[in-house]
Amino acid sequence: MEVNKKIKNLGTVIKCHSCGSGKIVSEYYKTNNKFNADEGYLPICKKCLSTMFSKLIKLYEKDIRKAFMHLCMMMDFEINQDAFDKNIDKENPEISILAYFDHITRTAGRRKITSMNEESIHSIIELSKGLKLENNDYEMIIESFEVTPEMYKLWGKSYTKEEIYFLEEQFEEIKETHSGKTPMEFNWYRDYAVMELNKRKAQDAGEHKEYMAYNKAQSSLMKEAGLNPSKNDMAESDSALAGMMAKALENEAPIGEVSEDFNDVDKIEEYMNTLYCPPLARSIGGVLK
User: Fold this and answer.
1) What residues pair up with 14 in beta bridges, in sequence order?
2) Helix-strand-coil split of the chain, %, nearest 5
3) SS3 readout for 96-109
4) Residue 264 gets which letter from DSSP?
5) Given CB 3.0 to 4.6 Å as the disulfide criterion, which of 17, 54, 148, 200 pairs with 94?
6) Which of 120, 114, 123 is nearest to 30 (CA)?
7) CA atoms of 288 and 278, how far apart (whole Å)
8) Is 228:222 a contact under the CB 8 Å cutoff?
9) What is the CA 144 to chain-centroid distance, rounded?
10) What are phi and psi of 159, to 5 degrees?
11) d(C-alpha 96, C-alpha 84), whole Å
């Protein structure tokens, strides 16, 4: 059967180029791409398409728009900003990406369409404006950031303004998380921030071995500094917190004395004294006082 030829038999099985499973054509989306299609369908099944989108979201650090454009261009599938806004659920993007592909393939006039069209080009430009805006916001933050003498004293003068901003962010974050106060703890936090910066630089440079070396050193530092609380520590912390709450309630909102109106409110004491205790006392030769 010739490539891109319409399959009339809906029971025809196509092999997914990703998972290798043979699935019927309803498990694939149609395409008009002449280089990437198998019998007029995308070369990967719907399940693998969703999985691929999930991986892209992680690679783009949860930036759904970037992951979306990457996936569509990789599949040569139409990029439609309006359909993206209407169909992609930000809370469940991995599932809703299929709703987007369904929308495009089922909308009249858009079946078997590719990204080589005016709609896709326009949407890429519009979506990219948002990405540029994010970059501009970050550039404005860096531009307005002032490096103080205290920062130079902590980090030295070999780092750029942007790098010092990153170091300060990391330092404050870990200091706030672990609430350290001693000079030794501050030194640990500083070293952690520097290693985090070195990891980022190694990652950007594509130096995988160097990245892993910094990552290992950082893990050793965290273990040495006790920055990874054990399960026992967490349990003790929870117990201590519960005890502190109980103590606070006792001191600040103690239980008051029982009002006379609530003495024997269910009449059990009266019942016992009247019907149960007198016969019991007589049976053992005693007298009820």
Assistant:
1) 23
2) 65, 5, 35
3) HHHHHHHHHHHCCC
4) T
5) 54
6) 114
7) 6
8) yes
9) 29
10) -95, 155
11) 10
- DSSP calls for 216-242: HHHHHHHHHHT-S--HHHHHHHHHHHH
Q: What is the pLDDT of residues 75-116, one digit of tens each?
A: 888 888 788 888 888 888 888 899 999 888 887 455 556 777
How far apart are the C-alpha atoms of 269 and 32, rounded to whole Å?
86
Cα–Cα distance measured from residue 127 to residue 69, given in angstroms and rounded to the nearest whole number: 9
pLDDT digits (tens, 9 = 90+) for 153-192: 999 999 999 899 889 988 888 877 776 678 888 888 888 8
Q: Quick one: tokens of 88?
A: 């992609």
- Type of residue at 249: L
Strand partners, 15: 22
Amino acid letter, 121: I
Q: What is the pTM of this model?
A: 0.42
Residue 189 and residue 180 in contact, taking contact as beta carbons nearer than 8 Å: yes
